[in-house]
Amino acid sequence: VVFSGGEVSGDVSQGAEMSMTQHSRSSHVEMTIGSFSKGRAILVDENMRTCVLPLHILPLDAEVGSIVEVSVKLNKRKQLQKMATLKKSIEEIEKYTSSCMDGVRESRSSILIPESKSKEEIGPDKNDDDFVSQNAVLGKGTMNNTK
């Protein structure tokens, strides 16, 4: 069953407006008639979103389980709220990622041995002037240091 009638709005979850006219910001969704209640048809889509339409809009042969193609247009206010929420979420993710990267940089720099501790804990550097002169005095090296 495909609608081809005029404008219709119903009670719809998540701020969507159901209409049967083609809009530039709308998309077609296939919905299944789930049940009838108090002169209305309750439609359900594959994401379990629902809408309610008056029975007089449906074809006479419509029954539970029939598939109906409906044009869905998001309410502008709800659409802007969703965009703002997404933007905020993206900013929070970027902020968190940035703080994680700062932590990684700090941990890498703390792994490096500071210069003041290197001689005490590891021992003298063989290219160090003090090491060469001490060994020369003790007769372990040569005095050819031209630094």
UniProtKB/TrEMBL annotation:
Compositional bias annotation for Polar residues: 132-147
Annotated segments matching region Disordered: 1-29, 107-147
UniProt biased composition (Basic and acidic residues): 116-126
Source taxon at top rank: Eukaryota
Annotated protein name in UniProt: Uncharacterized protein
Organism taxonomic ancestry: Eukaryota, Sar, Rhizaria, Cercozoa, Chlorarachniophyceae
